[in-house]
Design brief:
This protein is mainly alpha-helical. The chain contains 9 helices and 2 strands.
């Protein structure tokens, strides 16, 4: 009874929730895989398992992924002498680097120093993708003025950065 309570607690309070139906499918897939290996003396492909269980290939893959234990980012992948390579070393996020965050903060700070009209023109031009003619009609100034204000605002931002 105590073991059952511990399992229930771990199941219900896990950081990652997997639905019962997906877990059941995963166990069926694992059983079919073992049975196939016993009969054919080779590992079945995902397509073969899907065909045996009459499931879509995607459902088989999702079910198998759902029952795999999560791996720590600091899990060693390779160790040769003193240097250990961890999962973290193999995973890269080129979009969300420290430099990108700093540039984003600096850009936001530089934009905040512009006056309201310049910020509005830049927002319309670069965030909403409007042409200078569309911006001029919306702001109520000529296209030439939009061009001049845009150029000056961008130069001020460049100086700030």
């Amino acid at each position: 009874m105590i073991v059952g309570e511990i399992r229930r607690y771990l199941r219900d309070n896990s950081a990652i929730r997997v639905s019962r139906s997906v877990r059941d499918t995963a166990y069926r897939v694992l059983q079919a895989k073992e049975k196939y290996m016993a009969e054919h003396q080779k590992e079945p492909t995902v397509d073969e398992i899907a065909q045996i269980l009459e499931l879509r290939r995607e459902d088989v893959v999702m079910a198998l992924d759902a029952v795999v234990d999560p791996v720590s980012l600091f899990e060693p992948v390779y160790s040769d002498g003193g240097d250990t390579v961890c999962v973290m070393d193999q995973v890269r996020d080129k979009k969300n680097t420290d430099e990108a965050w700093l540039e984003h903060i600096a850009l936001g700070d530089a934009i905040s120093k512009l006056d309201e009209r310049e910020r509005r023109i830049l927002a319309l031009r670069f965030f909403q993708g409007k042409t200078q003619m569309e911006v001029s009609a919306e702001v109520g100034i000529s296209q030439a003025q939009v061009s001049r204000l845009e150029k000056n605002a961008l130069n001020r931002i460049r100086k700030e950065l």
